[in-house]
Amino acid sequence: MTHASMSDDLPEGEQPNERLEFLGDSVLGTVAAELVFFRFPKVDEGPLTQKRSKLVSRKTLNRVGEAMGLGQYIRSRIGKSPLPSTVVGNALEALVGALYLDHGYKKTRAAVSAMLLRYGAEVIMEEAADFKSRMHHWAQVEGVELRYMGTEDSVGDRTAEERFEVTLFIGDREIAKGMGRSKKAAEQAAAREALERGEWRENAL
User: Fold this and answer.
1) Burial class (CB in 10 A: 0-12, 13-18, 19+), 203
2) Residue 198 DSSP label
């Protein structure tokens, strides 16, 4: 595998990893989507999206690439030992892209699924954030009331994938808004927005 720092030293016709990284990223996303879709048949779109995102996050891919020892197979002129974890994670994406080109999707899916499961996919998928549950837990601890109020087709210029808009309230105070293809997905988006912003907590009680 070849890092971009080697670009000036490559013979004509050879390329560094970037194009394969692009392809591998797409294949990884598809395999991860299948994994969570079939592993969690009763889970809605919003939580499934969070599980997939965490499964192929930069942090996860960096860790898996390092656990596989990919660093020793990367040509680079970075000069650091060991290589930065992001370089190793990117190389993992390139490897998946190369597998796809050589062996097709079916064999690549089997290899990538096995790889992810070997290096902790089960734990990662179970730990993936359910933002609405986290908000509910916080409200129970603090003894406050959460309310989600939503409407369908409330925003005319949004795409068909964002038909629902939900507003999250604590008591009578508006905290955050979320949008999604279903009411539950919009509620997850609103809870995520609230948790990520966080400044409202100072005056929430």
Assistant:
1) exposed
2) -
User: How crowded is the C-beta side of 176, counted as CA atoms within 13 Å?
Assistant: 23
Total-model pTM: 0.62
Within 119-130, residue ranges assigned H as helices are 121-127
| Alpha carbons 31 and 103: distance in angstroms, whole number | 15
DSSP annotation of 203 reads: G
Residues 179 and 142 in one domain: yes
Collapse the DSSP code of 175 into the 3-class scheme (helix H, G, I; strand E, B; otherwise coil) and give the result.
strand
Shared-domain flag, residues 123 and 135: no
Asked whether the bond before 82 is cis by omega within 30 degrees of 0, the reply is: yes
Residues with a catalytic annotation lie at 25, 93
72 and 165 in a common domain? no
Compute how many other C-beta atoms are within 10 angstroms of the C-beta atom of residue 205: 9
Q: What is the pLDDT of residues 33-80, one digit of tens each?
A: 999 999 888 888 878 888 898 899 998 999 999 999 998 998 888 877
